[in-house]
Amino acid sequence: MDFLASMVLVGAGATAVTDFWSLARKRLLGIAPPDFGLVGRWIGHMPRGRFRHDSIADSPAVRGERLLGWTAHYLIGIAFAGILLGVWGLEWLRNPRLLPALIVGAGTVVAPLCLMQPAMGLRFSAHRAGHSFLTHLVFGAGLYAAGRFMIVVFN
Questions:
Q1: What's the structural domain count of the chain?
Q2: What is the full DSSP assignment across 43-70?
Q3: CA of 135: how far to CAs of 21, 71, 106, in Å?
Q4: Residue 109 belongs to what H/E stretch?
């Protein structure tokens, strides 16, 4: 399988695992899942030259923000899978290993904590950072699971 198709399948699969984790976390612990509509709102303001908000929730809504946010969520997951495959190569996909996937998953927490949340007007919270780090480790485990799944389906 070629690089792009592998990237899409692994990234979308890992992102879906993360979404199931968020649903389970809400059901079991009462922790609300991320509102990707707000991510869409943030992205939707960018063509208007607005990249930072005091509070994204108080910023004017953008048409189609929920769809935009969910689309961005999956495209970002696919891009992160591209990093995994770019660094460890398609060889990783022939024999997926958990550690590289967890390293990439852990590294992906930098994007929301250092870029997205500050730009959206969300202050740093150690509690939220802990949940975010765990969720991104789940994404890493999802990368691994999607890689293993692809072996079963395509071999």
A1: 1
A2: HHHGGGT----S-GGGSPP-TTHHHHHH
A3: 8, 19, 9
A4: none
Question: Is the alpha carbon torsion for 113, 18, 54, 71 positive or negative?
Answer: positive
Write out pLDDT tens, residues 63-109. Answer: 999 999 999 999 999 999 999 999 999 999 999 999 999 999 999 99
CB atoms within 10 A of CB 66: 16
Place of tokens 């999802």: 142
Let me know: does 18 contact 139? Beta carbons within 8 Å. yes
Whether the model pTM is above 0.90: yes
Q: Between 123 and 50, whose confidence is greater?
A: 50
Q: What is the pLDDT of residue 127?
A: 57
Whole-number pLDDT of residue 126: 54
- Write 126-132 long-range contacts (CB < 8 A, 24+): 131/25, 131/31
The boundaries of the domain holding residue 16 are 3-154
How far apart, in Å, do the first and last CA atoms of the chain sit? 10
Give yes or no for a contact between 113 and 132, defined as CB atoms under 8 angstroms apart.
yes
The residue count of the chain comes to 155
